[in-house]
């Protein structure tokens, strides 16, 4: 493979991804991205913050919670 090719950073739309639709964002300029499906526009920092919110949705997915602990929640 050639070392001269640059790797383009791909990001997924956080609005569509939270609805479980996988759409890649298009670049709209310096540090700006937009979604062609839902018209979301945001910077890298906004997208990262929304990714962290989406990760909270799956926080307990890999951990088994016994019934006694569920009742105490």
Distance between the termini: 53 Å
Strand order of the biggest β-sheet = 1-2-3
The assigned structural class equals: alpha+beta
- Rg on CA atoms, Å: 17 Å
Helicity level, as a percent range? 25-40%
How would you describe this structure to a colleague?
It contains 3 helices and 3 strands; from the N terminus they run H-E-E-E-H-H. The mean pLDDT is about 85. Helix content is about 35%, strand content about 15%. Strands 1-2-3 form a 3-stranded antiparallel sheet. The protein is elongated and about 50 Å long. The protein has a domain at about 15-60. The protein has about 70 residues and is an alpha+beta fold. The chain has helices at about 15-20, 45-55, 65-70; strands at about 25-30, 30-35, 40-45.
Write the layout of secondary structure elements.
Layout: H1 14-18, E1 26-29, E2 32-34, E3 41-43, H2 44-57, H3 67-72
């Amino acid at each position: 493979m050639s070392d001269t090719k640059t790797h383009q950073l791909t990001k997924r739309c956080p609005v569509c991804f939270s609805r479980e639709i996988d759409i890649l964002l298009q670049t709209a300029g310096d540090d700006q991205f937009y979604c062609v499906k839902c018209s979301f526009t945001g910077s890298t920092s906004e997208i990262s913050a929304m990714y962290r919110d989406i990760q909270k949705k799956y926080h307990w997915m890999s951990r088994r919670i016994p019934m006694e602990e569920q009742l105490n929640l």
